[in-house]
């Protein structure tokens, strides 16, 4: 439904043409400095009409301001721990008058499925299936991100990794195993370790690889010139995540991330770490060896030499960067006539209406970051519940095989036969 | 955590070496014929030791019977609507004695992350991270599947679509656009429309393409010979699904499926419909045109000519087959020595222990089917709640643009200007 | 937290002095006629300043308009099935300046507990603990009530049953068993079967018993004259409820109602049916005998001759009126000096501030109705999910002892020994 | 449904005559010593047949052992943090043969409502509506109670406070205000502060007041002699609870407790603190003045001089003892013929079957304690999530009116006008 999260819970509302869109964030930690200025930047990065690459920008076509207004839950710039409601007004909320094009459910849009589900749909735009619905998520994530940064130094950065057939080298390099591929992957991991949002925003395509960026721009402009659209992928890295997040068995960290990402409109796929390319690898090369870490003042002394796991093992974060990639289909709204049929099953041609966004992936970047932040924030709070209740228990001695701590020399219990346990 | 679903809710329990594993299924529709014989077949398909391709089969190594015992919720072979508890006993539940190998967290296993999360872990096997945990899911899904079949004729069939580099032709064909690719894809869609579980089980590799099956077998045996392991992908199709399932915005059908699949141990990726390959397509070729359907006695008069959407639009099923692919990494447990380090950060070699399953994808087939069934069952019940409460409301006239029904000739409201709505 | 309901879900937000208060209603059945006019009446009944019995009414003191603005989820006056956000602006949302009185946590208020919980609190009024928070609930219930009325003819009416020591006769009559008591109770049940909101609103005390009403008014005015406050009880009846609502074991209908009612500020107790007085009765007089019902066109052929059960048995509605009583303490805010201590533990006197509502129960009437409506609406939808999924199963013959249907004459299985089953 | 709790989640299963009853406890803090011996004592206190006051004890009638078997989630006597499944076998699980009495839905039982809800019911005993269902709750609470004791020193003690018309003096004393009443109440609060379970178990009636106990025994034996049953109330105190538990607005601590208590079979009412009698008090006498507390080493420096609030304010615990009272109706199963009608609406007499428990309140004592423990445990974990995430934020200065801390002398912001805020 429209709520995400178990303890840090976000509920969104709004269609493309109703009075406003927004959300309620319930469960925000109290005592955090927060103003609308913390929330607005990502909303502005998400906004249509930022460049002629994405949504057409003629002022008469698009003039959304998308200013967020916090309704509750903060006072004097401090969170109270109570629900934080946020509202972003829609500029246009007239119901839509019927036209010829309404005879047709738009191909690969949600018109027909909404009517199957609800027996009624919003008259105009995408209704609740519109990308405008994501405003509530991005606003909510502004709060989560501020917390993650302040309390843990966690950074979340997403970027465009492919547009159509133009893709960053790491995507294909991962399939090979030669020296060149290894170099490409090393560059990729280095990039993940330091890329920032301002790096990403250096070009409106939001791909940090300058050469690749040009190819992507060409894909977009070509699609635009042909009144067509083009898909792409967004890759995201989460750095500074503590180990221990994610709830086996159903709410593994990767499962929640996958859920979060596939809830974004127009997504068709998700992969974490080695992902689909990892399925072609052998175990001995896919396994990430443990190494000692330089971790000042904490007990997470270990890290991994490689990161095919993508920062999760057994559904739980291991302290390495979490990275994943999300597939976006080409936008269904195109400026071309399409052969299809009416709601009544009569074949015909759905005429083009207006000009449209040829590619959504640059604008999807902050949305992917938002859903990542919401997922991590909730996982952190659930783990805090466990960790701090467990921390009040009297310490009890554990078997070495249950604690990862080697037994004292000559201690009992070290010589038994190993129970075979392959499952 | 360990509960999945909003109305049809499954809660599982159990580690690899405790007394038993199992689940409670809450919310099962009452009045359905059900015995253990409905649940056992998929448990047996899931069981290790079915062939020398997967888990080694020497009787002393593996002799799990995995017989399910229903504890509650049925009487005289009929479901009561009350919680159905199911128990499968573990054969071996001695705690594990400490050995040299316990000095090391196993690479790409959950040993280290469990200790980070819980500060304690099961001494033996994979504990809760073991694939044995999936028994509860598969048992629960036996109930869901029976319902889906009886009440809707829904069929769920999964199969191995790749092992290592050996993959079914449709996977790469989808990247091209030539005539040959088209033929391969046509074959793929035809196969999806009729494949059965017995087709899949004709070969223990569980790939329905005989030629490809041989290549996969070679991949598995080669990995086995090298004391290594190999990954793969499982593709799953759901046929007969009514339109209207899936709950925008966060619980879109594909989001819940992705969540479900990424909660299976060893998974690294999920894609629905055109998936990652769809990101390279143009909108005009990716859009699925609507066509009239021959649907006796229902109002779902439309279908799609192609199915790049994978049966979902706007997060809601459209009545076409839902299909998706899941990526499994190569098993982390291999029969080779591995350079790694101890819990204390001391570099060393983790010695091999025993022989292990070189490839899990054939056994993952019923687990993928199970999670699909649980997801669909819950989505069906949530939609039933809406549909049948809405169905009691007095009918009210809807604007044509809200109903997909053309206005009567000369009716008012058909001439207004179209509100531009691209988002 | 701030969400109520499993399928029909309400999330509220807002403090007494933030920008606005309101809610998001998720899961509303689509296709229902709905405008702000459906929601406003109960908000107006809830509003402070309706009479000089409750909140003081001088215009400078209270001038809340409490006009609801629907933000989303409806179009052209029809619900879309998507989340319905509602906003009611606060008139005054300046942060509060510190004064002498802020040295003291107010006795029996939430000042101190909020600081213990959140380490921060809203500076003014009751913050989130204010009765103003209930606006979101009452608005949400306007939607639920409209559905319940349209689809099931369900009616929910609450009234003031006691103020201080002035109470309606049924409350004490229930303890006795004489002829007079029986007559009083008969009158009570008759009243429950037909009382309407306009009956209740005939007097601003909102007690339908004219004589009792006068006594209550005296209690209120006496408390007011003494700068004191007084508590009371609200009784509520739900008529027209279908049998079968409520979810064993934890979500029994009475359990959810109790949860709902005790979540209203200032409540201290809940009883359903015979309630606490039933604890003094014997089983043979408390048991409600079954009788044939005149139920046109449905299979709920039975009713009960008495209704000590309060319309629920085993946590499930039985089709008889559900009635319950809710205890409200005297308001903690009084216009008297109080001996207490400061946050720092220094004894002192908290000086009076202004004039306050001596009695909240008349205004609590629509809030009790609201929480009842939200509880019933959710229970209905959960039951619809079960009933309509079960309804698609092929019929199977049931044992007579499982179906309540007598076996055919000479049928097998009627002679076995009775298993003793007292638990 | 059958799951209780948000973070510490208990799911129960089982009918009176299926194979076993039990539960899964998900979210238990890891690293706690736990064996079946921690769980068994309360199960034994709950068991029928403990005395001739409650369930008849002839060995042929009742010989339940109710031994719990832990299936998972612990190893070597330590909790792993994974789900803990527990099973208690039923002695008798034959389906019940049809007899004459099955023609009749039992008055005030769940026979008829289960059939309305599920269209099928268990053939024998109470099925899921049986008190036997509470075994899973009591087992789960054994774990929660151990944690609460070890980590916080929290104690939960319930006792029988009335049986029929025999009731402990505090119940009526609370209505008065004279010196004698004050003395009775003082005794009551003193008793609450130190009563233990062994005090309660000194007499099988489980009332700690010896004189009252005798009267209660007479009520029970009298009802028994008359083949009748009698109701009663159970009062429960929770001591040592930290301040800050309970989640506004819907999940106030008293709301969750009410939910928990009304989910116990046969309950009809709940009141916390002053409860229903508080509704007759004036605000100035009901308000609990703050006093300085001797609280070594914590910042909860305040307590209350009286405790009409019952330990909660604004839905949040204030550190004082939480106490509440629960109403139980007389058991519906009586050893008398009853005039009623059949499922088909034919009037007739339901013949008595066997001998039955005349009074359940002594056995309800551990069940009330169990539900209290589950409620508190979950509230603690949710608050831990908030508190420890908030605790990682950088400290920021708060306005005095937001923090309960007096401003420094001559500080700004102390002279502003007080915003009137009566709601």
Textual characterization of the structure:
Chains A, B, C, D: Belongs to the chorismate synthase family. Chains A, B, C, D: Its EC number is 4.2.3.5. With 423 residues, chain A is of the alpha+beta class. Chain A has a single domain (3-388), classed as Chorismate synthase, AroC fold, CATH 3.60.150. In chain A, 31% of the residues lie in helices and 18% in strands. The first copy, chain A, has twelve helices and 18 strands. In chain A, the strands form six sheets. Chain A has a five-stranded antiparallel β-sheet with strand order 1-2-3-7-4. In chain A, strands 9-8-10-16-11 form a five-stranded antiparallel β-sheet. In chain A, α1 crosses α3. The radius of gyration of chain A is 24 Å and the shape is globular. Mean pLDDT of chain A is 89; it is low at 56-63 and 411-423. Chains C and D meet through β1, α2, α8, β11 and α9 of C and β1, α2, α8, β11 and α9 of D. β11 of chain A pairs antiparallel with β11 (267-272) of chain B, so a sheet runs across the interface.
Q: How do the strands and helices of this protein lay out in sequence?
A:
The structure is a homotetramer of 423-residue chains.
Chain A: E1 3-4, E2 9-13, E3 20-26, H1 36-46, E4 68-70, E5 74-75, E6 78-79, E7 84-89, H2 111-118, H3 134-152, E8 155-163, E9 166-167, H4 169-173, H5 179-194, H6 197-200, H7 210-225, E10 232-239, H8 253-262, E11 267-272, H9 275-278, H10 283-286, E12 290-292, E13 302-304, E14 312-313, E15 316-317, E16 322-328, E17 338-341, E18 347-350, H11 361-390, H12 400-403
Antiparallel strand pairs in A: 1-2, 2-3, 3-7, 4-7, 5-6, 8-9, 8-10, 10-16, 11-16, 12-13, 14-15, 17-18
Helix pairs in contact in A: 1-3, 1-11, 3-11, 8-11
């Amino acid at each position: 439904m429209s709520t995400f999260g178990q303890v840090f819970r976000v509920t969104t509302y709004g269609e493309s043409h109703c009075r406003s869109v927004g959300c309620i964030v319930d469960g925000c930690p109290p005592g955090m400095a927060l103003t609308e200025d913390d929330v607005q930047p990502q909303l502005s990065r998400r906004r249509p009409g930022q460049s002629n690459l994405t949504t057409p920008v003629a002022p008469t076509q698009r003039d959304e301001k998308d200013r967020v207004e916090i309704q509750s839950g903060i006072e004097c710039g401090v969170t109270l721990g109570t629900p934080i409601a946020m509202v972003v007004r829609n500029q246009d909320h007239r119901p839509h008058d019927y036209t010829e094009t309404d005879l047709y459910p738009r191909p690969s849009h949600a018109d027909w499925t909404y009517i199957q589900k609800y027996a009624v749909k919003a008259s105009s735009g995408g209704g609740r299936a519109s990308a405008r619905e994501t405003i509530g998520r991005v606003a909510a994530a502004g709060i989560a991100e501020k917390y993650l940064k302040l309390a843990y130094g966690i950074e979340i950065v997403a970027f465009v990794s492919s547009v159509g057939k133009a893709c960053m080298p790491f995507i294909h390099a991962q399939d090979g195993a030669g020296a060149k591929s290894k170099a490409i992957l090393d560059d990729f991991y280095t990039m993940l370790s330091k890329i920032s949002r301002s790096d990403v925003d250096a070009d409106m395509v939001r791909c940090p690889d300058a050469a690749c960026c040009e190819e992507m721009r060409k894909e977009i402009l070509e699609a635009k010139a042909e009144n067509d659209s083009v898909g792409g992928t967004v890759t995201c890295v989460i750095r500074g995540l503590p180990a221990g997040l994610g709830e086996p068995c159903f709410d593994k960290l990767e499962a929640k991330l996958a859920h979060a990402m596939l809830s974004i409109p127009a997504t068709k796929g998700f992969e974490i770490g080695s992902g689909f390319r990892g399925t072609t690898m052998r175990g001995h090369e896919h396994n990430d060896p443990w190494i000692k870490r330089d971790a000042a003042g904490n007990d997470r002394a270990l890290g991994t030499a490689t990161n095919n796991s993508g920062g999760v093992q057994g559904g739980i974060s291991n302290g390495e960067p979490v990275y994943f990639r999300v597939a976006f289909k080409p936008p269904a709204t195109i400026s071309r006539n399409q052969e299809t049929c009416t709601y009544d099953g009569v074949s015909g041609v759905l005429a083009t209406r207006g000009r449209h966004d040829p590619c959504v992936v640059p604008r999807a970047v902050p949305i992917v970051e938002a859903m990542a932040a919401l997922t991590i924030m909730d996982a952190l709070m659930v783990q805090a519940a466990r960790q701090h209740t467990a921390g009040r228990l009297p310490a009890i001695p554990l078997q070495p095989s249950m604690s990862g701590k080697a037994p004292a020399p000559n201690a009992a219990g070290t010589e038994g036969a190993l129970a075979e346990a392959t499952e």
